[in-house]
Design brief:
This protein is an alpha/beta fold and about 350 residues long. It is built from 8 helices and 13 strands.
């Protein structure tokens, strides 16, 4: 294990935590070049860094070209009383030495964004006091896998493949700029467990700069576009964090997809400690489809009866990952929920024509 660690990671393990300490992950698989054709893209979220992650062994069994780390890639909640964020720093140190993560990291290229627990606090948004230090830790650990190194926030995008097989991957940041959510007055009530929709037009999910960036990205030439949101976009069958808590922002997302004439948009999300498929028509010029994949090793229960209006089939509660398989010749894709062994437990095939291609 020690030979797999980079020099900076070794130094950080050997010396006390310092105010500017940055943990580097072990030597990683290089990200594919822009001409590389992607056929299999795996993704997941919610990973406790101090525990084994059998689901990552299942991911390796599917032989993906790329893995998308969609947030809660570790659990480092830190009250930010110490500006060095020692708890979050330790979490990165633990992830750097996690054997299952290391096996994936050296074999499969990774792109990453964050959610609340690697941002630094449960359900946190723009007012979290440790966000600058948290971003420095995120950028330092993920390196080229972190796409937002040239601006505040961790959002970014990459293009892969030639014309006709071009995949655009858009990694959103739903934490750095997000306004406070409206708390429920019925804690624990079904559909209102923690938050309720807030129609305040002054509140934002992405922030002005990220919204402008996203609008420009959707005009880039691409065939298939994957929008990665750490929190769910289509689901509305619960009262936890999701885009439905800021309905004006959710409507704005679909408006810019529609007005940009972006075809082939598919949404991937995490956060919820369960996996499910969703589809909703009438938002853009073709049905929007979303797969939520969570958790990699933080499953909360054996079953989950949650059901949103847009949901396709039951939720899958055990530890899991997601897989997107692209059949360029057959002009279709398949989204599937995978168990810890990498076997499909639920899936949806989508002809390109159904997503505007």
């Amino acid at each position: 294990m020690i030979r797999a660690l980079g020099l900076v990671a070794l130094l950080s393990l050997a010396h006390p935590v310092g105010a500017q300490e940055i943990i580097k992950r072990p030597a990683a698989a290089k990200i594919w070049g822009t001409d590389s054709v992607l056929n299999r893209i795996a993704f997941g979220s919610c990973m406790e860094e101090t525990l084994p992650v059998p689901a990552l062994r299942g991911v390796l069994a599917t032989q993906p070209d790329l893995f998308l780390a969609m947030g809660d890639n570790l659990y480092g909640d830190d009250p930010a009383d110490d500006p060095a964020l020692p708890i979050l720093t330790q979490a990165y140190r633990d992830l750097a030495t996690n054997a299952d993560f290391a096996a994936l990291n050296r074999s499969v290229p990774i792109l990453a964004t964050w959610d609340d627990h690697d941002f630094g606090a449960n359900d946190a948004g723009a007012i979290y006091g440790g966000k600058s230090r948290a971003e420095a830790l995120f950028d330092g650990f993920w390196g080229e896998s972190a796409l937002g190194q040239d601006h505040p926030g961790v959002y970014g995008a990459r293009l892969f493949g030639p014309e006709g097989q071009r995949v655009q991957i858009i990694m959103l940041d739903t934490r750095t700029f997000r306004s406070p959510l409206k708390e429920t007055d019925q804690p624990g009530a079904k559909g209102k467990e923690r938050y309720v929709p807030d129609d305040d037009g002054r509140k934002t999910m992405l922030g002005e700069a990220q919204w402008a960036w996203l609008a420009a990205q959707l005009k880039q030439p691409a065939d298939l576009r994957l929008i990665v949101s750490s929190v769910q976009v289509l689901a509305d069958g619960h009262g936890y964090e999701a885009w439905h808590t800021l309905p004006r922002e959710r409507a704005h997302l679909f408006d810019i997809i529609k007005t940009s004439h972006a075809k082939g948009v598919v949404i991937l999300s995490g956060d919820r400690h369960m996996a499910a498929l969703y589809r909703q028509a009438g938002l853009v010029d073709y049905p929007m489809v979303e797969l939520t994949a969570s958790a990699l090793n933080r499953s909360m229960r054996a079953t989950n009866d949650e059901m949103s209006r847009q949901q396709i089939g039951p939720a899958y509660a055990p530890n899991n990952s997601g897989l997107l398989e692209i059949d360029w010749r057959g002009k279709s894709l398949r989204l599937s929920i995978r168990n810890e062994q990498g076997a499909e437990v639920q899936g949806l095939s989508i002809p390109f024509a159904q997503i505007g291609l």
